[in-house]
Amino acid sequence: MSTRRFTSDDPELDRFYSDIAANDLQPLWEMRGLLTKTPSVATVPHRWSMSELVKLAAQSGDLVPIERGGDRRVLALSNPGLGGAPYISSTLWAAVQFLLPGELAPAHRHTPSALRFVLDGAGAYTVLDGDPVTMSQGDLILTPAWAFHEHHNPSSESMMWLDVLDLPIVAGLDAVFFEEGPSEEADRSQARRSASERRFGQGAGLMPATAGHGFLPEHSPLTVYRWLDTDAALTALLELTESGDASVRFKDPTRSRDVMPTLRCEMRRVLSGTTTAAERQTGSRVCAVFSGTGRVEIDDCEFDLGPGDIFVVPSWAVYRLHAHSDLDIFTTSDAPVLDALALYRDEKVEP
Ligand code: 1HN
Prior knowledge:
Number of helices: 6
Bound molecules: 1-hydroxynaphthalene-2-carboxylic acid
CATH topology: Jelly Rolls
CATH superfamily: Jelly Rolls
Helix content: 10-25%
C-alpha cells in the first residue's frame, strides 16, 4: 500500500506531489471535506422489521449449528451506508441472536462491552462470571467488557433477543481482545435470582453498606434491569407529565453513571396519539420497539413501526416519533463516549 498521490497542472508542483507521495506525505491544502460544518455521517437511517428478523433467525436455527468456532448464532444488522460492514452504525454493532431449546452458547469474554434486550419470550439465561441471570421479555441484561458470558436455553421454546455491542469503537481503538471460556466447566444449572440483583437490585437507594469500599468495577454492578421496574417507572413518570412522552435512563445504582463506560440505555414511552418534539444529538442510537405501533421520521426517511422492529438514528439526524398506540422503545447509544470526550451535543429542532 502506498499513500494517495495528488496531481497538479503545474509541472513543478506535480513533481513535488510525486516526491511527497514517495515519502508517504499528503498536502492538507489540496484536501476537501475534512472539517465539515456539521458531522459528515456515512450511517444512514434504516429499519429492520421484526417479521423478517424472526423468519430469518428461525431459518438460521435450522441451518446453522452452535458449536465451538461459531459459538453464537447471530445475524448482524448491517447499515446500508457502511459499504458492507457488519455494523448498524459507525460506532455500534447490533444483531439478533437465536437460541434453540436445549442449546448452550459457550462461555467467552472480550473487551467490547455488550448488552441484551429481550424483545419477546422468556426461559433463557446468561451466566455472567459465574452468576446466572434469567432473561425475560423487556429485561435489559449487561455483558460488561471482559466478563465471561454464556447463554443457555433450557426451555422448550426458541429464544431471540437483541444484542448491542460497542465493537466498532473498540476495534477503531485497536483494543479488541477475545478469550474462550473453560467449556468443560460450563454451568448447566438452572438460574436462580442472580447474586447481582440480590446485592444491588433490592430497591431504589438501598445498597450494601460496603458497596463503596474496595474494588468497584467500571460498569454497573447491577447486571440486569427488570421490565417490571422499568414499566413502573415509566407509568409513574407519565402521571406527572402532560407531554405523553417519558424516558427513563438505566444507571449504575452505586454511582451517577451510565450502565457501562461506552453504552447509554434508555426506555421511552410515547402515549397513543402523541407526536414527539423533533431533536438531534451527536453519536448514534439503536432503537427497538418493545410494544406498540407508530411511525418514525429520521431526517428525510419515514418508517412504520411495530413490535420488535429495530431502527438506527445516525449522528445529528433529526428524529421524531408518532405513536399510533402506546409506544415503548428501548434505546441504546454511544453517548457516554461522546460525553467523556466533551463531544456530546443535542438540540431541539423546529419542524
Ligand atoms: C458476542 O460475544 C455475543 O456473547 C453476541 O452473545 C454477539 C457480536 C460480536 C462479537 C461478540 C454474545 C457478538 C459477540
